[in-house]
Amino acid sequence: MTLKNIVVAGLLASLPIGTWASPEPIRVILVGDSTLASHNGYGDALCARFTPQVTCINLARNGRSSGSYRAEGLWQNVLDLLAEQGADKGMYKATYVLVEFGHNDQPGKPGRSTDLKAEFPANLSRYVDEVRAAGGTPVLVTPLTRRSFKGAQLTNDLQPWADADRAVATAKRAPLIDLFTASAAAVQAMGSAEADTLAVEPPPSVQAAPADRDQLEAATNRKSAFDHTHVGPKGADFFATLMVRLLRDGLPALTPYFQ
């Protein structure tokens, strides 16, 4: 053994047991709407921040609410994955299911809206109960803020749904990640103009006009992907970074699993 190897071995031996060992594999399942889904949400960027010991599965889907996600059979996919965990308990040390709804539960979403006082809390409670019954750890996440401003003030129109999340988490003694409060504070601090840069694409008023006339006509007829809800790569990176901080604080057991 070389002198270098002897030194390294001595250093490792001096560390507390478990300090240098790789953490056991775990699984994280993301459940929610388009603000978490692939392509226009932050979920994939969050998955990318975990170490290789984490199997991160993004099952969030565009346009879903706490009610329609189950009604369309999407929740069954989560239960099937949890059943696999039960069949082979040696595969993962734990499975965390992050549940984030609210945007499509609001009024005016036909086939998706849920009643804030009764149906929305009942849906969340059922998700918590079923994850626990299947051996997983449910984690409620308050909805990502919209980036709509009225003058210099952010419009916090999702606050009641965040409050409902918090009440269910308290009643069920389930972990809560308050993304709404943190994301709203961050967006308020950056202001409307900077917040717009987090969108899928820039506002139509600041997009560069194509030089080619045919391309200009096509661009004029195309519906803009800009809005104050969904995120492009910059927004996904920003909110995934924010979520890592919140998860470190709210779920310390996940800390070793972030890169």
List keywords for this structure.
259 residues; alpha/beta; Rossmann fold; 5-stranded parallel sheet; 9 helices; 7 strands; 42% helix; globular; disordered N terminus
How is the secondary structure organized here?
Layout: H1 3-14, E1 26-32, H2 43-47, E2 54-58, H3 68-71, H4 74-87, E3 95-100, H5 119-133, E4 137-141, E5 149-150, E6 153-154, H6 159-172, E7 176-177, H7 179-196, H8 213-221, H9 233-250
Parallel strand pairs: 1-2, 1-3, 3-4, 4-7
Antiparallel strand pairs: 5-6
Give an overview in words:
The chain is α/β, with parallel strands linked by helices. The chain has a single domain (24-192, 232-257), classed as Rossmann fold. Helix content is 42%, strand content 11%. A 5-stranded parallel beta sheet has the order 2-1-3-4-7. A two-stranded antiparallel ribbon has the order 5-6. Helix 5 packs across helix 6.
Short recap of the structure:
By secondary structure, the chain is of the alpha/beta class. It is built from nine helices and seven strands.
> In percent, how helical is the residue content?
40-55%
CATH topology, what is it called? Rossmann fold
Low-confidence regions = 1-20, 214-221
Q: Counting H and I runs of at least 4 residues, what is the number of helices?
A: 9
Structural class: alpha/beta
Radius of gyration: 21 Å
Shape: globular
Identify the strand order in the major beta sheet.
2-1-3-4-7
Total domain units: 1
Determine the CATH superfamily.
SGNH hydrolase
Strand content: 5-15%
Q: List the quaternary state of the chains.
A: single chain
| SSE ordering | HEHEHHEHEEEHEHHH
